[in-house]
Write a structure and sequence with these properties.
Blueprint lengths: L1 H57 L1
């Protein structure tokens, strides 16, 4: 009985650890992707705006 309890308890702990690890990894990946996308979008927008301003000024 104790052996079965310990086995179940150990498995539950392993499952929780795996879930935590997967959640952390997914969150990190999502954050990285969102940051990269936002940075790319901001850079593109800034470049476009700067180019438009420069063209308007020069023309």
């Amino acid at each position: 009985m104790l052996r079965k309890f310990l086995h179940i308890r150990f498995k539950k702990t392993n499952d929780n650890t795996n879930n935590d690890t997967n959640n952390d990894t997914n969150n990190d990946t999502n954050n990285d992707t969102n940051n990269d996308t936002n940075n790319d979008t901001n850079n593109d927008t800034n470049n476009d705006t700067n180019n438009d301003t420069n063209n308007d000024t020069n023309n």
